Amino acid sequence: MIYDFGYDAQGVGKCARRRPVTDTIARPGKIIAIHLSYASRADQRGRRPAAPSYFFKPSSSVGVSGGTVERPAGTELLAFEGEIALVIGTPARRVALADAWTHVAWVTASNDLGLYDLRANDKGSNVRSKGGDGYTPLGPHLIDARTVDPTALRVRAWVNGELRQDDTTAGLIFPLAQLVADLSQHFTLEPGDVILTGTPAGSSVIVPGDVVEIEVDAPNASGSPTSGRLVTTVTQGHVAFDETVGSLPAVDDLQRTEAWGSAEAAGLVAVPSSRRDAPRSGTEEGRNPVPERAKRDDGPTLSPALRAKLLEAPTAGLSAQLRKRGHHSCFIDGVTANIPGSKIVGTAKTLRFVPFREDLFASHGGGYNAQKRAFDAVEEGEVIVIEARGDATTGTLGDILALRARTRGAAGVVTDGGVRDFDQVAEIGLPVFSQGAHPSVLGRRHVPWEIDVTIACGGATVQPGDIVVGDGDGVIVIPPALAEEIANAAIAQEHEDAWIATQVEAGHPVDGLFPLNAEWRARYEAETAPQNETAPQTKTGTNA
């Protein structure tokens, strides 16, 4: 049988037969939640507890079906957890395992919401991370515990209509009755107290606009009793935490991994190529796409000495040396600098957009998408290189992302698309090479798809770790294994060209001088011998 739940004037739990409308569930005296209880979740976390452990949630965290929950300003890792909630009907103190279930009056659905941005500082207490207003919605209806088998209950969770969790109490490490018996050893469980019994695998991050539904039922029981769907909508908060009175939200890769459910889901490790392009449903604010390949690490690093050489050598000279070695497709065409006179040297961190498609933008365009992850993860000295298919009719970054890249120490950005907030990006001081300004948002033409993969930018193939050099003549891509040789040769050629320029300025004709014939070369080597002994490399040939 199914009931709605309330309290009488003395605070004693009572029930009423289900009515056509959903009643609220009054505040319980205690809410006790278990940290880890399902085998599927334990396997996902890589740890299986020997005994249950618990934390309390404040009664002010109770919410109702159809309500909202706020993701606070400045946070990113609000996660849902579909759970079976037990409501105590009669006092339980030091009860035996065999009698424990008789003290449970009702079963219902709960969403044990948690904000992982605050989790580390809570050190397991979850006081702040799980104690927020509305972080324990319950209901909408109560199932009579006497009519169901506690080992055959089911919990399911949907996000925006997509089934995310589906497990039964057969998958529990600790049976429901054991939780009641265990807790009763330590304090009295009173009528109306709620026990949250843990969540199975599938819990993950939700974002503003997402709608989460949780249902608990007993599909094998007579009449298939159900709690109905507990519905919660995520909203965006606008009040930041006050840094003067307490610790602030903070996230790291551990919290991202546990909030999303796995390192793969958080975009922190590689996945097989067969899975990489599979879309996931979600709202426009929403889902993380399936993550990308890890960065390659098969070439030499860009040392400070090599970086200095590449800063000295012009792209025109570097490209000439690449062409002499058979590399004719090293140019990122069509891009110019937002800051005249700027130069960039760095290793490529790649980001790929695919053409806009409504369903793919819904699954990959919002939330902590590939574009945001690229700018959050760029390392000092890296250049973010964006494949936008040469489409300049929308922006591929704006001032906020440019500020993030500069703060992270990025050497610059190269995109064969457009840039929003063009003047503000230039004022930030981050060198950006692009096709120019465009006011449109990303979703007009592009879906942010993946990072740290081989891309095509401005007609050039770019791999993670390739060396990117840009100046007033444009941007080129240098294979890491050739970078030292190319830099030395380009600098040597620059010294030679400078000497040739002095001869032309002195009135000599260019015929035989540019390029140097045998006579002129002998003269050049004689006059510059001391310099050539310390030059990185003397190179014959032209710099056309």
Automatic annotation (TrEMBL):
Pfam families: FAA_hydrolase, RraA-like. Residues 30-234 form the Fumarylacetoacetase-like C-terminal domain. Residues 274-299 have a biased composition (Basic and acidic residues). Residues 268-302 are annotated as: Disordered. GO terms for molecular function: hydrolase activity. Keywords: Hydrolase, Metal-binding. This is Fumarylacetoacetate hydrolase family protein. It comes from Microbacterium galbinum.
